[in-house]
Structures
1.
Amino acid sequence: MKKITRLIIGITVIIALAGCGASREGEKKDITLGATVPYSDMLEKGVKPYLEKKGYKVEVKEFNDYVQPNISLKSGSLDANLFQHKVYMDAFSKENNMKLSSVVTVPTAPIGIYSNKFKSLEEIKPGSTVALANDPTNLARGLTVLRDNGLIEIDDKANPLRVSEKDVTKNPKKLKFQPVEAAQTPRTLESVDLAAVNGNFAISSGLNLEDAIVKDKLPEEIINRIVVLEEDKNSKLAKDLKAAVESEEFKKVINSEFEQFHKPEWMNKKTAAK
């Protein structure tokens, strides 16, 4: 009888400990968030203080590429990241057999057309060379900026998120396109006439967003977002991250530090409602 009693007590203790472990995991307070520049600053200034008031201990880890933040999320060394839009997230998920989930969209730096030679669209000369990011999404964004400002025309049947040089139907100035790695576009300004530069790479290289000749208009699919593994989309952390971005403190940081960024639709609606 004593053996049975000890066995029951032992099983009870194991179950209780297992329950405590699940509880601790559900209430995880030491977290690591990953981001590229300048979104690492956005997390540091606009999200981290809010989370720390909620009792979290937050580390923000900075990345300089678009691959490792998701790989680190999958390995568990990150709890969430901020650097990608929905189109990239969905493509990465499919190609790498991952299940990623968007938590909330944030203000996003636009792609801009920069030049060390020209100050306006009217100054652009025939035959000018234009550096464009060579990944499909940002290539499409760069070409769309040129299209929206009357420099080229694009086939109406082309997928707007997958436009390439092959879809250009009219190029009156005979612009020459030079695809390069997105991170290298700022450096090409010494050797090309124009460059379509992602906002984050423009900022990290010292360019001023206000110096762009023109900027793109971002659809919701291209707005950057905080991302977690799909299994964590309903976690307490995911809910607290969303609350942090929707807070007045975050809004103040955006208005003072990231005023040139394109705001997501939900943020514009929230502002208009007040």
2.
Amino acid sequence: MNQLPLSKNSQKFIENLRVYLFSCGKKTNEIDEISDELEVHLYEAEKEDKSVDHIIGSSPKEYMEQISGEMSFDIRGWAKYVPIIILGAFSGIVLKDIVFGGFQYSLVELIGYPLVCIILILAYMGTFRHIASTNYSKTKEFLFYGLASLLSMALFLGLMFLPNYIESPIIILGYYGNLIVASMAISFLIGISIWSKTIVSIVLPIFYIVPEYLVGFSGLSESHQLLISSLVMFAGIGVYLFISSKSTKENTSTS
């Protein structure tokens, strides 16, 4: 929350530091305190015509690592966030499967989804941390985000085919079972939205489900339907994240 008039370089460094510390699992209130303190130091330095390097040194990554090393890991916070993220992701997946055929999962899938979610949380946290601590161009940043997205697609696709090679009990729900589970999933996603004060938990499932559902009426081949719905989904999510990120930065700079 930059309240002091800082240069773009200083503002960008503070934003990157916040992302880095959050992706390291640090407490939000401690991140705020560190950011506010650094903001004052940078402001004082800029009044004397000194650059960001005067405060942080020649290596932003080393400075961030040093700050992170002095802060404790937010065990309580992440013990709360991780289950919410996993259940939120699984709620979106379950809703889509119910729309396109019903709740039908093998034991391998029920165990695999939480494991995949944990791997992806670690992968995305590592990606955010690496990008925040390195001065990459926008093109390279998008490349890293693209690689993380490909990893998520590969893991979920692998999980879809895994039951073909590993036999395990299958859980199938009837009409009322699907209705109850769908209602629980929708309620949980709305609850996350209210708790987090964002609509991301509602927007992402919409982009995940609606394009494929609408393209299903087109009469195109399955491969073309999958291609078009995937492009629309990723484009929609990309536009939403871009608008959301831009809005957050505008609010931060004016606060």
3.
Amino acid sequence: MSIGDHTATFATDTRTEYQRVNSLVGELPVIEALLTDVRESDVVFDIGANIGTHTCFVGKSLESGRVIAFEPMPMNAARLRHNLSANLPASKWEVAEFALSNEDGSGTLAVKGQRYGEGKHSLSSDGELKIDVFRGETLIEEDRYPAPDILKIDVEGAELQVLKGFGERLSDVRVIYVELHHDLSVEYGTSTAEIETYLRDHGFEIDRLNDRTDAYHIRALNSAHD
């Protein structure tokens, strides 16, 4: 698979993986836009990395920077490590096998299928898989990871919780790419409009990149970093 000047290879043992890699789930324009924002020294948090279609291409754009890929589903995390190691030197990436939210502790993941590349897993009060959960701000202030320059967020409706978890450190982020889900946001007690308002209230200017009936992507640029 090639995007611009970068080529990445991905394992595809299942039909789900094959379709995800070859179609990029309709997100080729989003990845192309993301890559134009990546600078060689950036730290990028890929939150909800799945099997690494975004992560691998981001890593290809880095020199001294790093991409941290957050993926709490063990099967996807294993494939993510495989794909990253096949495409990038170990110095450029790390997999964090837990979820980000607005609290530290533990939670449960609702698992939607057991095949590599399944992308509908989500934090749930009655999920079947127990996982660790952290605030982004906690990870930064405890020096577990460097502060990110870019966030890419795809967390099946829990976007506002992830953003709130960065606290005051959200102002340090230069640009954010988020997939917003109309119905799934409601399940977390919020809405896509509220998430956009939260970002604007924190100094971000928003551009909509695409539009589907169920979801859409936005690029949020921190006006303080112009």
